[in-house]
Design brief:
Elements lengths: L7 E5 H18 L2 E2 L9 H9 L5 E3 L2 H9 L4 E7 L3 H13 L4 E6 L2 H11 L6 E7 L11 H13 L3 E8 L10 H20 L10 E4 L5 H6 L11 E4 L25 E12 L2 E4 L15 E5 L10 E7 L4 E7 L6 E5 L4 H4 L4 E5 L5 E6 L10
Parallel strand pairs: 1-16, 2-9, 3-4, 4-5, 5-6, 6-7, 7-8, 8-9
Antiparallel strand pairs: 1-10, 10-11, 10-15, 11-14, 12-15, 13-14, 16-17
Helix pairs in contact: 4-5, 5-6
């Protein structure tokens, strides 16, 4: 199974299992439940490990992903996004009608979006459960104030086919660094979400209201603002961290405070050219490596026969579609294998329909797949 074309996305199975166990234990210690944001990997075996370790459900970003997760057997699905098209809402309604055991919840941040959902679910036997989404100025989705949150909440409770079941936020809109200014911004947002949740408590249409936050970058700050069941009886505190399963060598390695998480993803490529002293070109580029959160770090090099070259060095200077230009190259020759770290796991997996699973020694033991491209033009 070690024979495989280059470049390769490789996942260390032991590191993933360790990360999942560490996060599950951390959540138990903090008395929060985990519904991991599986859009990070969209890979069934990893998600199965997360559920087996105690995750209560899964989080996705799109209606297509809901369909994929239903096909994979999951029945507790949170869409951490607005769904404002009648077609997508109709698909959710059909799934709910067909399966009484299925729970699909979505976010809302506007009365216009609520109105579309109300029209689709007006005659449905299953109500659509919704959480008011709270955002930040210049950030992503979400209401920006308590007054807007109340307006959206009341629109949901006024619609017969909809149910208000909680409040959600996303603290990761702050830059991923732990300087005092950014941590203050994260705390400010988490407190706003908390205060809106408490303010809307009397309107929740469930005995188990949900307070949900992200948590891949700042889980320690999120849990500080989780409401207590004494403040709102029945509260279920849900964290949606997704990137912890594989971690990385860049974005989350520099900001996630949970001890013990280990980077589990690498990309291996061959040195295909050495046209100048100190410059080599590896056969992996933008199509293979994430670069939205920084260029991939060089980790190691091996001969074509797989022997480690400890003296090898270099830094990725620029990525083209299928090439990585490395400067400061030492001890690297054409046909050598170079191993790169991953600066952002979310934009690593979506480049690879399949990837190699390795044991601790680097021996390939399996091939796993991703599914980011579910066909859904006709439902």
């Amino acid at each position: 199974m070690n024979e495989s074309a280059y470049p390769q996305l490789r996942l260390n199975a032991s590191a993933v299992e360790s990360n999942i166990s560490i996060m599950a234990a951390w959540c138990r210690e903090k008395n929060v439940v985990l519904a991991p944001h599986v859009k990070t990997t969209m890979s069934a075996p990893i998600i199965e490990h997360q559920i087996a370790a105690g995750a209560v459900g899964v989080t996705v970003a799109t209606v297509d992903q809901v369909g994929t997760l239903i096909d994979w057997g999951h029945r507790n699905i949170l869409v951490a996004n607005q769904v404002v098209d009648s077609f997508g809402l109709g698909r959710i309604s059909a799934w709910l009608e067909a399966d009484p055991a299925l729970a699909v919840r979505i976010f809302a941040d506007s009365t216009a979006g609520v109105a579309v959902a109300a029209a689709v679910f007006a005659d449905s036997s299953r109500a659509l459960e919704m959480l008011v989404d709270v955002g930040t100025l210049a950030g992503r989705t979400g209401v920006r104030s308590a007054a807007e949150a109340r307006e959206v909440a009341l629109a949901i409770t006024a619609a017969p086919g909809l149910r208000l079941v909680g409040v959600a936020g996303y603290e990761g809109v702050a830059p991923n660094s732990r300087d005092a200014i950014n941590l203050d911004a994260v705390d400010h947002h988490c407190k706003l979400v908390h205060d809106i949740y408490v303010d809307l408590a009397e309107h929740f249409e469930t005995t188990a209201p949900i307070f949900s936050m992200g948590g891949s970058a700042f889980p320690d700050r999120v849990v500080e603002f989780m409401p207590s069941p004494d403040a709102v009886p029945g509260t279920v505190n849900v964290i949606r961290s997704g990137c912890y399963a594989t971690h990385d060598h860049g974005t989350y390695a520099g900001v996630n405070p949970i001890p013990g998480l280990t980077p589990a993803l690498t990309v291996r490529a061959l040195v295909v050219s050495a046209p100048e002293d100190g410059l080599v070109v590896a056969g992996a580029g933008k199509r293979d490596l994430p670069y939205d959160a920084g260029l991939p770090p060089f980790l190691a090099a091996y001969t074509a026969a797989g022997v480690l070259k400890p003296e090898a060095a270099g830094n990725v200077h620029k990525l083209f579609d299928h090439h990585a230009v490395m400067l400061g190259a030492e001890g690297l020759a054409v046909t050598d294998i170079v191993e790169f770290g991953i600066s952002h796991p979310c934009s690593a997996f979506d480049r690879w329909p399949e990837y190699l699973v390795t044991d601790e020694s680097g021996t390939v033991v399996d091939v796993w797949h991703t599914d980011f491209h579910r066909a859904s033009i006709s439902g």
